[in-house]
Write a structure and sequence with these properties.
three-stranded mixed sheet, Alpha-Beta Plaits, four-stranded parallel sheet, 12 helices
């Protein structure tokens, strides 16, 4: 049995599913496999809130159309949860609890039997309080359960022709805030504006880390050399300040996913 057939079989056993769908490569692969295995008994649902970066919803809609899966949105209000707004190391637990409660409401109202996520086997090696929330809400992780890691996810996505196969990860905007910095809509909007401004300069992989009035920009390794030239640095600093930060810095170290987790654990 091929890997694709194995994953489709796992999904078929669930009878009908709602996919927690961000439009990233992991959830896109699950959505594609669910659509192939279950047809109209698969529904992709994207959560919309102030923590969703500009362009992500449009991207998710585009991927869903390419896959051919039914797609809906649901409003989440994680900022109303004190545990999320306080931004402790368990922030993602509160975010995912909100998400899964809303998605289960959709599933039960529409008669879907299971809720599935795009978590993969590599996610268990990092600090992932969201997985605890998933366990409490009975969420299935077909990629993780089958031992499929990130590299294989991207390979399978390319093989299936998914437009998100090489999409950079884009977690919620709150991930740009150091733990302990309260999550507020105005701060999320500031980070979003700054990242869009830097992205408009042609950079593809980046984060703007929020440190009060300072926006610290991290650029992906392939583009970092350009960012650190005199001209590149000046353009980034100007863009971030124009977005609303008092000061801006460009990190000389390349962007690394999960870097705030490493800082908090040190």
């Amino acid at each position: 049995m091929t890997r694709v057939a194995e994953l489709e079989s796992r999904l078929s056993e669930l009878r009908s599913v709602v996919v927690a769908f961000s439009g990233g490569v992991d959830s896109s692969l699950v959505a594609c496999l669910a659509a192939r295995a279950l047809g109209a008994r698969a529904l992709a649902v994207t959560a919309v809130s102030p923590a969703l970066a500009t362009g992500e919803l449009d991207g998710a809609r585009s991927v869903a159309r390419a896959i051919g899966i039914a797609h809906e949105t649901v409003r989440t209000d994680e900022l109303a949860r004190a545990g999320y707004a306080a931004n402790g190391r368990d922030r993602c637990y509160h975010c995912k609890s909100e998400l899964y409660e809303r998605l289960w409401a959709v599933a039960r109202r529409r008669g879907f039997a299971a809720l599935v996520s795009g978590a993969n086997a590599d996610d268990v090696g990092d600090w992932r309080p969201g997985l605890r929330a998933a366990a409490e809400h009975g969420v299935r992780h077909v990629l993780l359960e089958a031992g499929v890691g990130k590299e294989e996810v991207r390979a399978l996505a390319r093989g299936l022709g998914l437009p998100s196969a090489d999409k950079p990860a884009s977690p919620c905007l709150a991930s740009r805030l150091p733990y302990g910095t309260p999550v507020e809509p105005a701060v999320l909007a500031l980070v979003d504006r700054a990242e869009q401004a830097v992205r408009a300069l042609g950079y593809r992989v980046l984060r703007v880390r929020h440190h009060g009035g300072v926006g610290r920009v991290e650029i992906g390794a392939p583009e970092l050399e350009r960012a650190l030239t005199t001209q590149g640095r000046a353009a980034i600093v100007a863009a971030v300040r124009a977005a609303g930060y008092d000061r801006a810095e460009v990190s000389e170290q390349p962007f690394r996913s999960g870097s705030l987790n490493l800082i908090a654990a040190s």
